[in-house]
Design brief:
The complex is a heterodimer of chains A (432) and B (351). Chain A is of the alpha/beta class and 432 residues long. Chain A is built from 13 helices and 19 strands. Chain B has 2 domains: 135 residues, Aspartate/ornithine carbamoyltransferase (Rossmann fold); 146 residues, 3-Layer(aba) Sandwich (Rossmann fold), CATH 3.40.50.1370. In chain B, strands 9-8-7-10-11 form a 5-stranded parallel beta sheet, with helices on one face. A 4-stranded parallel beta sheet of chain B has the order 2-1-3-4, with helices on both faces. The relative contact order of chain B is 0.17. Classes of the chains: A alpha/beta (432), B alpha/beta (351).
Chain lengths: 432, 351
């Protein structure tokens, strides 16, 4: 593996507290040296990348991604999904277990990470919490962890039974894994296709009440409090309601280990964007009211939110081109996250660039305890994104690397163009 | 939760304007009709209804209209079919239970197939809200929404309006039971000012209610929604201007010149438990209630009626009932909207 020198760029590494012009040397998949411009000790005989006018930052980390393999390669494969990740500036993705079959075994966890999958960036499997994600019997967390799983979840099939969720939290805490919950009381959302409220009423669609999310988060937090002695870590996936954010905020004050993520669509869009049954605005959790959307923005700016995660959920065109109620939930997000975050969080809502990048790298790495990721301190993984923070461009889904094109952001203006993505010392993406 | 602080005025991503309808002949929602479009439809309904059947059937001679029905229907299907045929069009009926839909063919493919077979317009009844928008997007043909899920049923609202207009006397602001005159015409934003229409029953699941509550206030009518919370959530009042909720059926009746009763849609209750005896006690339109509280009102019902549940047989068959008149207004209205659908390049009346 050749060494790479990134020269003349502006390094923003929030975890290391760096926001300065620096040259960086990557060697053997690690960060070998960070030096003032022109001061790298061994800049000869290495491939050099000229990052003049560009930001150099730790590679982005998306902790909520569906890559569909094994089983649904027509939507996405690990190869295409990670190529999309690289194009979006991501160097690591944590992938959900709702594959076919469900990732509830050591074998599937290993299979996902095998070199034969052709991943362009690092894949961290998240294993199912319960057998087949049926919410009944716990999997062997210790074995899954040693096979490479970084967390457990029954994403999409929330664990409803208090007893099972309590056991899951306790067992995960014992082996040092996080529990990720897709917070939805499915007893309240049966047959629902969008957020409950005036828009759903007007469109004649059954709605998912906000309480189905916030109530489940509150329940999980109660269990955390009961298990205070073993210090379990609960991570709330794709938080979308003001009530859930309020519960997380309070639990933190009470000293509980709760973290949460928000998806770009939940801080940008509302249920009004569903328009006249646009299935590209159908996801779960659904687009919420403007008050909920405002609460997401506020929570991001206030620091309550730990990570921006895309919930990248590819679906084939024909699956989305159906009656709204029949369409599957989810949108792709890996190639639009950075462009949207810079355009809106940074440019429009004035969040400092370093904080935006932290929400996309250092903090998600911390949420899942990914050691040596999310920073470019010497010795860390050579995971780097190099982008032009000023470049404005228009996203066209058809030009994307993902196998699927289901996105509400087609044709949207973006800010911040990725020039190179480097994963563990290899160039995973170069813009044309 | 903490409200968004005032320190940062937030600018948000905008919502793109609706691309619908793609085809000026489509009638997806009552909102697709401008006031001019509405008057055009009402006007043509009267002209076509009176016209000699032997000249009328030249208007759409041999034009092809498909009726695509994913749900059972008596009135709507038959009256659309008779309307299209009265204008000379060829009709083909495709129903979910005797077609490739049973084999899993998608709505898109079914629509494209019908278009390839020469259909120039598709009349769609579907159990999923929003299906007509999808079909229009995929085919760009004129689509007539004959009822989509719990969402809209625009031709029903139009025929309800025509029924009301044929009974309403603007000078007295009263409805007369006898159908002694032509429907009031043309209509404007104040035509129904002073008129209160009470829609009672299963509003939550009713596409008829949604279309009516969007259409009638545009002509100045007040729409009162009445029913128990399970079937009528509070937020329904926010569906548009001129809409309010009155939970007390008898109080609502006292104010009404038009009473529209709705069936409880057992097929859409989705596990909701309802005490029918309690419901009848609260909301059944009985002869006693009608006589004492609204003796001069007219009674509408889109059908199918469940005698003895939301309405007694005596009221359904009584002098204040317009249920059968509504059905014949349906044929006239549907002649007009089918003609509009196929009047290529006409001023369609699109919003």
């Amino acid at each position: 593996m050749t060494a790479i020198a990134i020269l003349n760029g502006h390094l923003i590494d929030p975890a290391a507290g760096v926001d300065a012009d620096k040259d960086i040397l990557l060697k053997d998949g690690k960060v070998a040296e960070v030096a003032s411009p022109g001061k790298l000790k061994q800049a000869e005989g290495v491939q050099s990348l000229d990052a003049t006018g560009l930001v150099v930052a730790p590679g982005l980390i998306d902790i909520h991604v569906h890559l569909r393999e094994p089983g649904q390669g027509y939507k996405e494969t690990i190869a295409t999904g990670t190529a999309a990740a690289a194009a979006g500036g991501f160097t690591a993705v944590a992938v959900m277990p709702n594959t076919t079959p469900v990732n509830d075994t050591v074998e599937i966890t290993r299979w996902m990470q095998a070199p034969e999958r052709g991943a362009a960036v690092r894949v961290f499997p998240i294993a199912a919490a319960t057998r087949g994600s049926k919410g009944e019997a716990l999997n062997d967390f210790a074995a899954l962890k040693s096979a490479g799983a970084v967390a457990v979840t029954d994403d999409g099939h929330p664990i409803l039974k208090d007893s099972i969720m309590r056991e899951t939290l306790a067992a995960a805490a014992r082996v040092g894994l996080s529990v990720i919950q897709h917070a939805e009381d499915t007893r309240l959302t049966h047959g629902a296709a969008m957020n409950a409220g005036p828009v759903a009423f007007r469109l004649g669609l059954r709605g998912m009440p906000a309480e189905a999310e916030s109530g489940m988060v509150e329940r999980d937090i109660r269990l955390l409090a009961e298990l205070r002695d073993v210090r379990p870590h609960l991570h709330v996936a794709h938080t979308s309601t003001a009530g859930a954010i309020a519960a997380v905020r309070q639990a933190r004050r009470n000293g509980l280990r709760v973290t949460c993520e928000v998806a770009p669509h939940h801080f940008l869009l509302t249920d009004e964007h569903v328009g006249l049954y646009d299935t590209h605005c159908k996801m779960n959790p659904p687009l919420r009211s403007s008050a909920d959307r405002d609460a997401m923005i506020e929570a991001i700016l206030d620091g309550v939110v730990d990570a921006i995660a895309t919930d990248h959920a590819p679906h084939a065109m024909h699956e989305k081109e159906v009656e709204f109620e029949k369409a599957p939930n989810g949108i792709i997000g890996l190639e639009t996250a950075l462009g949207l975050c810079l355009r809106w969080l940074h440019n429009e809502w004035k969040m400092p660039l370093g904080r935006v990048l932290s929400l996309l790298s250092a903090q998600p790495a911390a949420v899942l305890g990914l050691k040596g990721r999310g920073t470019l301190a010497v010795g860390s993984a050579a995971d780097v994104v190099i982008f032009d923070p000023k470049a404005e461009w228009t996203y066209h889904a058809t030009e994307g690397k993902s196998k699927s094109k289901n996105t509400p952001f087609d044709g949207w203006p973006m800010q911040g163009k990725v020039r190179w993505t480097i994963s563990e010392g290899r160039i995973a993406y170069t813009s044309a | 939760m903490t409200p968004v602080t005032a320190r940062r005025p937030l600018h948000y991503p905008s919502i793109s304007p609706s691309p619908f309808p793609h085809n000026p002949g489509s009638l997806l929602s009552v909102n697709d009709l401008t006031l001019d479009g509405l008057n055009h439809v009402l006007d043509r309904a009267t002209v076509l209804e009176r016209q000699d059947p032997l000249t009328r059937d030249r208007i759409l001679l041999k034009r092809r209209v498909a009726l695509l029905f994913y749900e059972s229907s008596t009135r709507t299907r038959t009256s659309f079919e008779l309307a299209a045929k009265a204008l000379g069009a060829d009709t083909a009926l495709i129903s979910s239970l005797s077609s490739s839909i049973e084999k899993g063919e998608s709505l898109k493919d079914t629509g494209l197939t019908l278009r390839a077979l020469g259909a120039e317009a598709i009349i769609l009844r579907h159990n999923s809200s929003g299906a007509p928008w999808l079909l229009e997007e995929c085919t760009h043909l004129p689509i007539l929404n004959a009822g989509d899920g719990m969402h809209e049923h625009p031709t029903q609202a139009l025929l309800d309006l025509r029924t009301i207009l044929s009974h309403y006397d603007p000078s007295t602001k009263l409805c007369h039971h006898e159908r002694d005159k032509d429907p009031l015409h043309p209509v404007g934003p104040d035509t129904l000012a002073g008129l209160t229409v009470t829609i009672t029953g299963d509003i939550l699941h009713s596409r008829v209610a949604r279309s009516n509550m969007l259409l009638l206030p545009r002509l100045g009518a007040r729409v009162v929604l009445c029913g128990p919370k399970e079937l009528l959530p509070d937020l329904a009042a926010g569906s548009g201007p001129g809409i309010e909720i009155v939970r007390d059926f008898e109080a609502a009746l006292r104010r009404s010149q038009v009473i529209m009763m709705l069936r409880i849609q057992a097929e859409r209750l989705a596990g909701l438990q309802l005490d029918l005896e309690e419901y009848k006690a609260g909301y059944q339109l009985t002869g006693d209630r009608l006589r004492t509280l609204a003796p001069s009102a007219i009674v509408l019902h889109p059908g199918p009626i469940i005698r003895g549940l939301e309405i007694t047989a005596g009221v359904a068959d009584g002098p204040q009932s317009t249920i059968l008149e509504q059905i014949s207004h349906g044929v006239a209205i549907r002649m007009a909207v089918v003609e509009r659908a196929l009047a290529a390049g006409s001023n369609g009346g699109c919003a």
